[in-house]
Amino acid sequence: MRSRLARHSELRPSPEVLGEWFAATGTRLLTIDPDSSRFAVNSTDGRAYDPGNDIFLGREVGDGTAWFAQSGELANGQSARDAGLSPVLREVVTVGLAIVQWHATSGFCERCGASSTPSNGWFERICSRCGRQIYPRTDPAMICAVLDERDRLLLGHQVSWPTGRCSLLAGFVEAGESAEQAVIREVGEESGVQLSAVRYLASQPWPFPRSLMMGFVARGSGEPVVDGIELGWAQWVSREELAEGLASGEWAVPSSVSIAGRIIARWRAGELPSPD
Ligand SMILES: [Zn+2]
Q: Domain containing 186: what range?
């Protein structure tokens, strides 16, 4: 899916242009609380652009509305996890939250330990001692719709979730591992199901704090066996079984805000590509 935001990364070090956009009517300023992941949207209210405070996120594709963010404590504010955010708001909050949280937790150089300062319009930091350029790291993660030979879907319930909640199996990609290898390893570790084919579908940035969730569809076989520590149960379900479980309230699956929910919805509609 195309971005709804033109980031204009080449203009991040250009306070003159950004100052004009900041002052324009209709420009939106997000205040983001890095601790609570809450945010508020305001106008810039005639205040002058401050490169030491205001983070340029981009302009909306279409009407050109400019979006900036700043870090700040919020007693109230809207949750970044809110399912009702518009696509544009979801995108700017995801970018803003990733950047604001990164600065809040990344004050020191990982090579020499000296303090670092924001640079390049807040999308970079520079070490004060060794000059190292530091970028916000994104953690790769994977989530997979595992299908058996009868096109049933593997769903799992994490012990930490409310009773009945279930989703696709997921996990982080480890150092030195490809995303496909992580899919095969995680599904095997969590459920004992062995995969014979893995196909990439789509990805979603996940701002809690900075992951990139990559979605896959795979062919698997074998009866699921869980350890009872991470997963409480995992089982193959048909479309009819899932529909009944959701209708009766016995089960709940993620909403379509998340890539997990969208992949499950595509499987229910028979729209997932074959992994083979
Ligand atoms: Zn350093």
A: 139-268
